[in-house]
Design goal:
Length: about 425
């Protein structure tokens, strides 16, 4: 950006200087050099051709640099680094962020650390602080520029921050590598992968949402590892694992966690394939386009990225529809950008009517409050069950081989989350 603005300053000086010389030539020439005689203005009698060439060249350079500056402001904009991790975890992204900062017009942070003591993690204050700082920084930013978010958040925190954020237009997300490029090559590939995630209301708010089972050939498959023993309305606890980086058999996903064993139903969502008659998970490859010289890194295919988020949110919604009375423990092994964007997409989808939704999936139960009855009737009429996401879903933090339920949002029921580890 500094180089571009320097060239703009030089082009303005040259255009002004040679424009003045050309104007002086025309003014001091004889009366035949008039506007009415346009061909005479360009003759050597009216203006010096070298001066005229310098004037036109500098004017073209100025226009080109102004256009390039406008493109850089829209595409690069302000880089936001979001970090909220366990205090015992290293921040491997610092080196990569140093290189990414050089390509951005401005840099803002909303960061913190938290402890992992106790069976239930209460991160609501830490997450709220990051969300509030992010909102304040965005409100103070220049809305004419683009927004580039580089999330480095634990899975529960990413869902909550993404859920609460109000994204602006010209928003992109950056998947920053843990191992930055060892050399700083001007205009070279930094290893960062970015995806255009514009919230221009033509991308998400006006999307026609359909149920997961109505999607044509979805990449995210739902595999029920442990099924219900009786009526689905009697299921009290479900373990739902979102997997995009696993190669294990579906039956072994998260099997090492005792918390999973307390659940009546276990469902694994992710790409799958069959090996020797058994369902195995398949890693999801982030679809990237070819690298363009001068850009920070390769661009992620925005259509494939959006499709993935629709399928993941649909998978969560399907489980909530299938087991309306259950508490869902949500675990995930996803790219950082997907975790953050999934929280945002859930907040967009929760208020919509879902096409293809089966009727009477959520029957009001004896003892339900008026609000719970109204919720059940709304879902039966087609409203997304994600509208009760924080009441029914508890994100799980996996850290150092242990899985702990986490309180990360004000809408969660603290007593219900605590009961998950007391029973």
């Amino acid at each position: 950006m500094l180089v571009v603005e320097s060239l703009i300053a030089v082009a303005i000086a040259l255009t002004t200087a040679f424009g003045s010389l050309v104007a002086d030539d025309i003014i001091t020439a004889d009366s035949s050099c008039t506007i009415a005689g346009i061909p005479d203005l360009w003759s050597h009698h009216c203006s010096s051709l070298p001066r005229l060439a310098w004037f036109l060249g500098s004017a073209l350079l100025l226009i080109a640099m102004m256009a390039l500056r406008h493109w850089m402001i829209n595409r690069n904009g302000t880089l936001y680094y979001l970090r909220l991790l366990p205090a015992s975890s290293p921040d491997h992204m610092r080196g990569a962020m140093d290189m990414a900062m050089a390509r951005s017009l401005d840099f803002r942070t909303a960061t913190g650390w938290f402890g992992v003591a106790g069976d239930v993690l209460d991160l609501r204050a830490d997450v709220a602080r990051v969300s509030d700082e992010l909102e304040r920084a965005m409100n103070d930013d220049d809305e004419a520029t683009g927004y580039l978010f580089a999330p480095n958040l634990s899975f529960p925190a990413a869902l909550s921050v993404g859920y609460d954020v109000l994204l602006r237009q010209k928003t992109s997300l950056a998947e920053v590598p843990e191992q930055p490029r060892s050399t700083r090559v001007p205009g070279g590939d930094t290893g960062m992968r970015t995806v255009y995630f514009d919230d221009g209301y033509d991308e998400w708010s006006s999307l026609d949402w359909v149920t997961h089972h109505e999607l044509p050939d979805p990449d995210i498959a739902l595999t029920t590892v442990v099924g219900p023993l009786g009526d689905r309305h009697d299921v009290q606890r479900v373990w739902l694992s979102l997997q995009l980086d696993s190669t294990a058999p579906a039956s072994e996903v998260d099997a090492q966690f005792p918390l999973r064993d307390t659940c009546d139903v276990v469902v694994v969502a992710g790409p799958t394939h069959t090996v020797d008659g058994a369902t195995h998970m398949r890693p999801w490859e982030m679809p990237v386009r070819r690298w363009i010289p001068g850009s920070s890194g390769r661009k992620i295919n925005p259509d494939a990225f959006a499709t993935l988020l629709v399928e993941l949110s649909g998978a969560i919604e399907h489980v909530l529809d299938e087991y309306p009375e259950a508490d869902v423990l949500l675990c995930g092994d996803l790219p950082r950008t997907v975790e953050f964007a999934l929280g945002f997409v859930i907040s967009e989808r929760k208020d919509e009517s879902i096409e293809g939704k089966l009727p009477d999936r959520h029957r009001p139960q004896p003892g339900d409050s008026l609000a719970e009855q109204a919720q059940a009737h709304a879902e039966n009429a087609g409203r997304s069950s994600l509208s009760r996401f924080w009441e029914s879903v508890t994100p799980v933090l996996v850290h150092h081989g242990e899985a702990r339920p986490a309180l990360v949002h004000r809408a969660q029921r603290a007593d219900a989350v605590t009961a998950l580890v007391e029973s």
